[in-house]
Amino acid sequence: MRRLLVIAPVVMALVGLSPIASHADQKADDIKTLLGLTGRDAAQIERDVDVRTNTSLQAFVDAHPDLTGTEVEKLHSAVMANGQAFVAGYEEALVDYYSATLTDEQVLQTITFFQSPEGQAYRKASRELGQVSRDYIKGNLPTLFNALKASFADALKGHVLQPPNPGAKSG
Fold first, then answer.
1. How far apart are CA 47 and CA 123, in angstroms?
2. For residues 155 and 158, what is the distance between their CA atoms, to the nearest angstrom?
3. What is the crossing angle of helices 104-115 and 117-155, to 10°?
4. CA distance 122 to 32
5. Residue 114 above 80 pLDDT?
6. Binning pLDDT at 50, 70 and 90, where does residue 50 land?
7. What is the mean pLDDT of the segment spanning 57-79?
8. What is the pLDDT of residues 134-143, one digit of tens each?
């Protein structure tokens, strides 16, 4: 019997069989599927991080023309390594959050929804709504600031405003 317990895993490995994934592993895989359906998967986050970090790196390099090619390559390697670590941590945090807050059934039902025509329509509308929101804010923020500026000026008529004194103690 002891020999069978020792031999069975070896035989399973040789024929390509693996033990059934644990419940937690299956749920994590399902959550990663859900993240992919909602655009929050590691690949999408990695693309976003790459764009932002490479843009920042390029701005830094442009501001420091004295950097050598070797120094730029070291910076690039550091940016990539840190970006990959960030993405891995981010995905793990999302999986942990969804694991703690959604039941297995809720995860599966949400996946089913996002794979349905209704879910796909919702995702499309959400992406478009994001752009509508950004456009509205960009177009109307100056109006808000001007209205606030006018309201403050009106409310503070007769007051002489002094620039802040960093050394003064607040009471």
1. 19
2. 9
3. 100
4. 19
5. yes
6. confident
7. 91
8. 899 999 999 9
Give the tokens for residue 165. 């004194």
Contact 37, 114 (CB under 8 A): yes
> Model-level pTM?
0.57
Angle of the 69-101 helix axis to the 42-63 helix axis, nearest 10: 150
Please state, in angstroms and rounded to a whole number, the distance separating the CA atoms of residues 144 and 126. Answer: 25
Mean pLDDT of 118-130: 91
Phi, psi of 20 (to 5 degrees): -60, 135
Cα separation of 26 and 153, whole Å? 60
DSSP assignment letter at 102: S
Nearby residues of 50 by Cβ (< 8 Å), 6 or more positions away: 83
Residue pair 75/11 in contact by the 8 Å Cβ criterion? no
Q: Other CB atoms closer than 10 Å to residue 38's CB: what's the count?
A: 17
Q: How far apart (Å, rounded) are the C-alpha atoms in residues 35 and 44?
A: 10
